[in-house]
Design goal:
The structure is a single chain. By secondary structure, this protein is of the alpha+beta class. It has a single domain (about 10-195), classed as 3-Layer(aba) Sandwich (Aminopeptidase), CATH 3.40.630.30. The protein is about 30% helix and about 35% strand. Strands 1-2-3-4-5-6-8-7 form an 8-stranded mixed sheet, with helices on both faces. α3 (about 110-125) runs antiparallel to α5. The longest helix is centred in the middle third of the chain and has 16 residues, at about 110-125. About 40% of the residues are buried.
Length: about 200
């Protein structure tokens, strides 16, 4: 089973489906509404650049390097965000979950927890992954806290890991991971969070 495949996944009122250009208008609207593309330490595409970003993700999928999903709110049927498996290593059965953005109106509603549940469940229970990684900018305190809340362990910090020519800044990247034996506890934590949001 290819790690770059994108079957439709459903749980707790959330659907992950193959990202494609039909999602561009919805995703462009949520990015514009929340000014998500204005946060300097993230790489959220702008509404104007959404088509190009979707094309980029699809090209990486064709190369076996990414599995891009749209996050669908099943209540409305609209795309409210996007997420991926990236930096895929088939040989090492390892993926990273990232390149994620979610509309501000849908943050704190359990949608992100459901999406993470679906991706982690697939990684460990269907794809037999040996490790699932999460990487974020040192300055992205919200993301770092959210990853830690999942139960992921911090592996370390890559100093001067990436250069952003648009801002002239260097990124220190914080790396976290979850291992197969940790998935049952992470799973229970996610289910408890979803219950609090009345999604179960």
């Amino acid at each position: 089973m290819s790690l770059s495949a994108t079957p439709t996944l459903k749980f707790a009122g959330v659907r992950l489906e193959q990202l494609n250009r039909k999602h561009s208008a919805d995703l462009g609207a949520i990015v514009s509404h929340g000014s998500l593309d204005q946060v300097w330490f993230t790489k959220t595409p702008s509404a104007q650049g959404m088509d190009a970003e979707i094309s980029r993700r699809l090209a990486l999928q064709a190369e076996g390097q990414m599995a891009p999903f749209a996050i669908i709110d099943e209540h409305s049927g609209n795309a409210v965000g996007a997420t991926t498996y990236l930096n895929i290593s088939e040989a090492n059965r390892r993926v990273e979950i990232g390149s994620t953005f979610l509309g501000t109106d849908f943050q704190g509603t359990g949608i992100n927890a459901a999406a993470k549940y679906l991706l982690l469940q697939r990684a460990f229970e269907e794809l037999d992954c040996l490790s699932v990684a999460f990487c974020t900018h040192w300055h992205n305190q919200q993301s770092r806290a959210a990853i830690a809340r999942l139960g992921a362990k911090q592996d370390g910090v890559l100093r001067n890991h990436m250069y952003d020519a648009s801002t002239g800044t260097l990124r220190d990247t914080v790396i976290f991971s979850i291992l197969p034996q940790e998935w049952p506890a992470v799973r229970q934590g996610l289910l408890a969070r979803l219950a609090k949001h009345d999604r179960l």
